[in-house]
C-alpha cells in the first residue's frame, strides 16, 4: 500500500460540537483517523469517541480542540487518560453498545474500516461492535475500504455509506507480548481449572495469552469470547479447539472482535468456522447461560480480601475498563459447569500488592466472584464467608505482603 496523505478533506464535513466515532482496536480506520488528526487544528471543536487504541494516531499532544471520550482506558488510550484528555464513561461494554442500538447514544460522523468481497459485499471485518448501530443514525458515514482487512462472516455491513476512501495502511496489528515467569505460573494454576470440553472467554494481554498457550494438551475446547487472538489459531490448528461440545454454535468459533496479527487475519478471512457477532449475541446472558462449561478468564488491577475486583482505576486515575468482565462472569456462573476466573499478578510493577484490604472501585462485586488466582495459587471463593475469603486471598498474595494484609484484617476486625 502507498503512504502519504489520503485524498479526503474534513473541512465542511465536521461541524462544531459533532461527536465523531471511529472503529476501535484493530478495526480503527487508520487512513481516516490519521487524516482527521492531521487536520483537526483547522476544524471546529468536536468530540471524538474511541475504544481501545493500539495505533499511535491519537497523541495526547495533538488536536487540543478535540475532546476525547471512551468507555474504558485500554492500550494507548492510557496516554490520553494520563494527560487528562479522556472522559471515561463508566459502562459495561455490552450496555455501551446497546445504547447506540436503542438510540440513547448517538454519533454525528462515523469512520469505519471495511473489507470488501469479490461480489461487492462489505464486512465490518475485525469488530462487530457499536459502530454499525452508530452508523444507522449518523449524519455522515465514511468508510475506509481496506484490501488487507479480512472479510468475516457475521459482521456483514448493513448501513448505507456516504463516502468511500481507499485505505493506505494495512489494519492495525497487536502482537502477543513475550511471556514471563509470573504469567507462566498464573497460567499453570488457571489450566487446572479448565476441563476438557470447556468453552473459553478471555481478554487481551500477557496472562490470557499464557493461559491459552498452556492448554495445548486439552481436548474439545470451544471459543465464545469478546475477542480472539493469534493464540486461538494455534489451538485450532493443533485440534485443541473443535467447538464440538459448546451446546450452541457447534463447530464455530464465536467472537465480537479479532485482535492480532496478519496471521490471524488470514485465518479468519472468509472462514465460515469463525463468526464475528454483535455484543447482543456474544455478551447476552441468555446466550451465555446456554453454553456448556463456559470458562470466563478476566484480569484485574486489584482484588480485595472480600473478593471484590477492581479492573478500572488506581490512585484516582482510570487505567482500565469495565469492558465485558461482569457480563462474562455472570454468564459463566449461569453456565452448566462454568467457571469465572479472575487472574492477576500478586504485585504491581512498583512492588506494591495487588491483593488489598479494600479495592479502590468495584468492577465485579464480591457476590459474583468464583475464583481469583495469582502466581501464588488459587483462591476458591464461591460459597465462602468473609473470614474464610480473607484467609484464602491472603494466601495468594505475595509472601512479603501477607503479614501486612493480616494486620490490616485484624485492625478492621478490631
Automatic annotation (TrEMBL):
One of its GO terms (biological process) is acetate metabolic process. The keyword Transferase applies. InterPro entries: AcetylCoA_hyd_C, AcetylCoA_hyd_C_sf, ActCoA_hydro, NagB/RpiA_transferase-like. Pfam families: AcetylCoA_hyd_C. It comes from Bradyrhizobium forestalis. It comes from the Bacteria. Keywords: Transferase. This is 4-hydroxybutyrate CoA-transferase. One of its GO terms (molecular function) is acetate CoA-transferase activity. Residues 260-408 form the Acetyl-CoA hydrolase/transferase C-terminal domain.
